[in-house]
Design the sequence.
């Protein structure tokens, strides 16, 4: 389904962790293994640490990560142990996505490597903003190892927050310009062949700055939350994962000309295009998948923006290859995406729904949506 690209950034963080060691990087006098710390029985309200930090010396310069060893004791101790053992020496930042994350800590450089063990999950404390450092992981429980990522832009929060499984263990307190330089030094890719490498790490003490206090949600964020609340928790026998975006967070992925056309329609309706939001709920396994997306512009009848919104969400589809069907009391437009894949599109008040699935009983899915 073309609009699955909205989830690509977050899903790509789900990197497998397997047993692997970097040749010659580990101090043989300090064997590696899971940290002794255990998750806090009662999570803290905000990220906190005692001032312990890791200095990373890289080919592009140095940056310092202050550890949140009080709010994320397991991940923080793990990273400190790895740094003290010289584990990261020679390891590159194998993944860079501009405006999203810089990822490293994989001795294989493939996104599949790790230290030969995994650590316990912890409650995520804090928000995924620029400079935050978090553990990469798979969707499996307790799958974090040595891979970590640095968030490059506050706008990445929407994609990461939807899953909220990546343990926040630190913040870059010095050298964020170096982090940006590492990203700029190579062509952005999910697997950089010749990555910028870490030369050495050391432990030092810093004064952690106070964590920023989140401001009140913007009207656009409120609208996205309201749309997200309409998404089903399950459908077709699948438990669905949800994610929602404001238009500002995803506008760069869309055709500017179609956005302008949509804006004209919204202006005529006396509404605000800036409140447009997109939500998705999906799940898949070896047997099939269910994917449901919704687009809403508050106070704009979804039927009146059917064409431009469909063009945005299905940019590669032939919208002329469509038919009309009725499911229950709903009139549904069926678009043939080719290869036997159909997508069912229909308006409901100010929400335009998109459904595609391999589940045979698509009528039940459609009729149960708000």
Sequence:
């Amino acid at each position: 389904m073309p609009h699955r690209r909205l989830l690509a950034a977050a899903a790509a963080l789900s990197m497998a962790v397997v047993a692997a060691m970097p040749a010659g990087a580990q101090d043989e006098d300090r064997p590696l293994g899971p940290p002794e710390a255990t998750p806090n029985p009662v999570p803290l309200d905000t990220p906190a640490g005692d001032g312990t930090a890791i200095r990373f010396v890289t080919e592009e310069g140095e940056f310092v990560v202050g550890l949140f060893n009080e709010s994320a004791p397991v991940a923080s101790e793990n990273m400190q142990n790895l740094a003290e053992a010289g584990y990261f020496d020679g390891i590159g930042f194998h993944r860079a996505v501009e405006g999203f994350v810089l990822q490293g800590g994989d001795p294989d450089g493939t996104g599949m490597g790790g230290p030969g063990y995994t650590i316990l999950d912890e409650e995520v404390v804090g928000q995924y903003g620029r400079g935050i450092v978090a553990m990469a992981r798979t969707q499996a429980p307790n799958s974090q190892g040595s891979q970590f990522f640095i968030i490059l832009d506050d706008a990445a929060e929407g994609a990461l927050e939807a899953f909220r499984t990546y343990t926040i263990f630190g913040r870059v307190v010095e050298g964020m310009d170096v982090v940006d330089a590492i990203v700029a030094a190579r062509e952005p890719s999910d697997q950089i062949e010749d990555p910028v490498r870490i030369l050495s790490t050391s432990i030092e003490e810093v004064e952690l700055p106070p964590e920023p206090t989140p401001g009140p949600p913007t009207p656009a964020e409120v609208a996205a939350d309201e749309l997200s609340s309409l998404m089903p928790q399950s459908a077709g026998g699948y438990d669905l994962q949800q994610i929602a975006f404001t238009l500002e967070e995803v506008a760069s992925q869309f055709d500017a000309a179609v956005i302008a056309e949509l804006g004209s329609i919204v202006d005529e309706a006396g509404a605000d295009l800036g409140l447009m939001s997109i939500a998705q709920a999906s799940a898949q396994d070896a047997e099939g998948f269910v994917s449901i997306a919704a687009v809403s512009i508050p106070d704009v009848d979804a039927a009146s923006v059917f064409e431009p919104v469909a063009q945005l969400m299905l940019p590669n589809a032939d919208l002329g290859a469509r038919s009309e069907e009725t499911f229950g009391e709903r009139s549904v437009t069926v678009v043939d995406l080719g290869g036997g894949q159909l997508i069912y599109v229909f308006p409901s008040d100010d929400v335009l729904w998109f459904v595609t699935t391999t589940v045979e009983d698509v009528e039940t899915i459609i009729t149960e949506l708000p």
About this structure: The chain is about 20% helix and 30% strand. Confidence is low (pLDDT under 50) at residues 1-28.
